[in-house]
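Thought: the user wants the 3D structure for the chain below. I'll pass the sequence to the structure tool as-is, report back what it returns, then summarize two notable features.
Action: structure_tool
Action Input:
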Amino acid sequence: MTSTYAVLSEGLEKRFGEVRALRGLDLAVAEGTVCGLLGANGAGKTTAVRLLTTLLRPDAGSARIAGHDLVREAAAVRRRIGVTGQDASVDGDLTGRQNLRLFARLHRVRDAADRAGELLERFGLAGAADRPVSTWSGGMRRRLDLAASLVRRPDVLFLDEPTTGLDPVSRNRIWEAVRALRAEGTTVLLTTQYLEEADRLADDIVLMDRGRVARTGSPAELKALVGARAEAVVTHPAALAPAAAVLDRLTGAEPVLDHERLAAGAVSTDPTLTLPRLVRALDAAGVPLADASLSPPTLDDVFLRLTGATGATGATEKEFAA
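Observation:
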């Protein structure tokens, strides 16, 4: 195992009764990068995070976090990581400043008051620092939760769906914080349901399906695997069927019809498909076109194509963790 990886796991497995939540998870997250862990509900993301943060013990396999063995050196691992879970860990009865001072003292951070003030300023919370957190907005509480995970400057930060339920402004603030942490050398492992979030933040993405890794790569590399999104907009409803037939033949994927827009679209499995070829094929089939386009795929397209968006077990990961 090499020290250039902040998170390195081999064959991690975890069972909950008859349910195999993880089936040989292999991860390699380089130091100072953001890794996006994606998958449908039940794919094993939260279970993986709970294992890698020592909250669960693996049934098989091994892992090193920040250079320490996950099982034999669990205490050392905990000293090197920060965790922001799906549920807020801050106390609503305390002020924001009191919350951060409390976390700093629990972690034996010197100059707890100074560190709390520094984080409040960094996350734009200084103006509300001395109000009870129960009076704060959801986005402010989420930022405070993230700040609390940083009081001792962790080498590796685990973020489990940090922006779920936040408005766009609050989400962007969290994104800015993650980018700043990466620039400072912190390694971030991020699980998220928002594929746009992973696309914007992650250096590398791990697609999980049924408790194991389905595919890894940068956002650009994963998008290149599924070609491009082809779409034909026709002039009248009767032309939708022949347009769909052409797209089916060219892309190898079942087209999706938008009857309101009179559009047929499909994500190509052929990376060599070009717009001129698409237009010529539609014209040869006598399809009356209003518009045609070929655009880069989104991570949503990649996710659906490579995982089928199926859950692993029918049970949710929160049920596993209960």
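Final Answer: Structure generated. Residues 168-183 form the longest helix (16 residues). The chain has two domains: 5-223+308-321, 227-296.
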